[in-house]
Amino acid sequence: MLKFILIFLNIFINIKNFFHFGDKMIYAFGHKNPDTDSIISAIAVSKLKEGVIPARIGDINPETRFVLDSFKLPDPKIIVNSAENKYWLVDHNSEEQTIDGLDEDQILGIIDHHKFSRSVTKALNIHTEPLGCNCTILAKMLFAESINVDKNLAGAMLGAIMSDTVIFRSSTTTDEDKEVAGKLAEIAGIEDIEKFGFEVKRMACNLKSFNPEYEVEKDFKKFETGGINYGVGQIETVCLEDVQEAKSMVMEVLENKMEKENLHFIILMVTDIMKKGTELWVTGAPDFVEEAFGKLENDALWVDGMMSRKKQVIPQIDRVIENAVNV
Fold first, then answer.
1. Dihedral of alpha carbons 159, 162, 166, 172, sign
2. Could you read off the pLDDT of 229-266 as tens digits, one per residue?
3. Containing H/E element for 235?
4. Which pTM does this prediction carry?
5. Which residue, 14, 255, 268, 303, is the most exposed by fewest CB within 10 angstroms?
């Protein structure tokens, strides 16, 4: 009898250590002001890595709420500080975008599709690919490991891909994103991928729930080039005219943010998925923006075909700044 008790205790200890890294929990979470890709990526990692708990470091937006509810997935646990736990970082790698107080020794790994900007001093499990969506990477990893992706997770991951690639209209979209989306749609039983994508993106159109502070912050990143600090945010919509009705409120938020964070200027990309272009809303130092893209009228400028901050805004702005400071 004692032998069986000892065996049971040994199994229990091993399971406890495996799932909780000793007394520490293991969480996966995406960036601050999480979007659908960040939230669903955390859930996908919990499927890929046993013992990992999906988490988030911000509120769930209406689009993500639609995806979670549509596929009956529970909300990831919200965490407010790094404590003494261990973490997988998904859909981000920069210190600015992660949870406050996170120490490098707490990071077990990073799975991301953005430019790698974190300085590391030790070997980490790092998986990055230049794809349009982080869930594309995770779906590939799940498929490669022959891990079962059920109908609900497949549908949610498809929702993340359609969101991050702007229904395949973003210039960051790759053939792999489309291929993986097709596989996920087949599992989820979704026949019309584009129609589903519009249903996902349409969730941000309700002005009754439009929060200008949230909309500015949810996809906002800061940059520094030649001593010039600036920020670029993006709102993706299928209803540009509705968002334009809130412009005055949004511009006030941008002006306050620019002053508070000591930025030289801010660009907000209001991207119209249907029209395949972006209206730039600008506060502060308009010369750089006008040199890169053209004349502003009422602090705004429409740029046909512009969908990607990473490929179509930042390189042009950095080039203009570098030319100006090197004169």
1. positive
2. 999 999 988 889 889 999 999 999 999 999 999 999 99
3. strand 228-237
4. 0.72
5. 14
